[in-house]
Amino acid sequence: MTAAPVSGRAHGFRVPRRIVTGHDAAGVSVVVGDGPVPVSRELPDDGVAFHEVWVTAQSPAVIGAGAEDPTAGALTVPPPAHGTRIRVNEFLPGHLDEHGRQSPVHRTESVDYGIVLEGEITLILDDSEVVARAGDIVVQRGTDHAWANRTDAVARVAFVLVGGEFGPDVLEVLPADVRGGLMRHGPREQDAGGAA
């Protein structure tokens, strides 16, 4: 599913500005793009928005000169297997499910850096919860988790996702079919493991 571009503010969401640099024909550093991120997906019933900033398909990343935009296209939660993804998620207050969560419990085979830009967000793990506030950084390492904004203000979190592989020590303690249950698609889309 391709997400339609969204601009401005809807449902209380704020689409971030993205500035992209490149090079002109003479090798001079220039701005090749300046405007709202090209892909946003709002889930108003969940009180969540995904604003895609940039994606790379591999590491090392190919650095192009022009205005090519690898971000346009289908919105998926995890990064490419050997790539990266940066997005800003917004979590509106007042959208918790019966379990006190705002996102489904999910796992990706990636290392995700969650930088809280504004407000506070609760990270929900199998055996615990932790509140992260503006300025805090969560390093999410392939664990089952969910998110919840349990305040009365918007929470904004920048996520930098880096494709990874589970190490042998992690695979020894996880279920044998762990990769079958990974989140692979976009938010609220059916995944192989049944997570929506």
Q: Can you give the helix content as a percent range?
A: under 10%
Radius of gyration: 17 Å
> How would you sum up the global shape?
globular
The amount of beta strand, in percent, is 35-45%
Task: Detail the poorly predicted runs.
Answer: 1-9, 191-196
Count helical runs. Answer: 1
What kind of sheet is the major sheet?
A: 6 strands, antiparallel
In terms of structural class, how would the helical and strand content be classed? mainly beta
Order of helices and strands: EEEEEEEEEEEEEH
Strand order in the largest sheet: 5-6-7-13-8-11
Extended strand count:
13
**Head-to-tail CA distance between termini:** 14 Å
Quote the average pLDDT: 89
Oligomeric state of the chains? Answer: single chain
Question: What are the SSEs and their pairings?
Answer:
Blueprint: E1 9-10, E2 13-14, E3 17-23, E4 29-36, E5 39-43, E6 48-56, E7 84-91, E8 110-118, E9 120-124, E10 129-133, E11 137-141, E12 146-148, E13 155-163, H1 168-173
Antiparallel strand pairs: 1-2, 3-4, 5-6, 6-7, 7-13, 8-11, 8-13, 9-10, 9-12
